[in-house]
Write a structure and sequence with these properties.
The chain has three helices and six strands. The protein is an alpha+beta fold and about 190 residues long. The strands form two sheets. The chain has a three-stranded antiparallel β-sheet with strand order 1-4-5. Strands 2-6-3 form a three-stranded mixed β-sheet, with no helix packed on it. A hairpin with a 2-residue loop joins strand 4 and strand 5. Helix 2 (about 80-100) packs antiparallel against helix 3 (about 105-130).
Amino acid sequence: MTDPKSPPSDAADAAGRDPDATAVLEGDAFRPELTVLQAELAAARHKSDENFNQYVRALAEFENFRKRSARDLESARAYAVERFAQELLPALDGFELAIANAAHADARSLLEGQSATHRLLLKAFEKAGIAELNPSGTAFNPAEHEAMLAEPTSAQAPNTVLRTIQKGYVLNGRVLRPARVIVARAPDA
């Protein structure tokens, strides 16, 4: 800037304006830029609204999925044993028939009926993925067996299952009930 009291310099133009002075632009000078920026702002707002609507829809879909999953899980819990129960019903029928006929049936026919009912139960267990644990003669496994007694013997190696007192059961590899067993131990010296 130049001092207003100083005489005009060579840099001043013919009209007497200083080239370093800020020029005042006319009122419509920024109109095209302003129009472009307003259009970009409108497009950004539109895109923002679209994104928000997509977010709200995704949130609603997730909430519906969560509710549906909770209903499905509750239904699965309530009816998980349905197939197994259907397999057990014939065994129950066999027991009820045996009880109803116990007064006038002979021991042999009752035994045959009980054997048939036992086979029905084993078949139902097999279909459900339940297997017996009858570990007699195998090494003691604390994850599958419960030692009820340790019996001294020289006929078997120590920690070998001598007898099974109560069978255990496994459901798809997971122990439902450990087998109760008598385990061999070294004889007292």
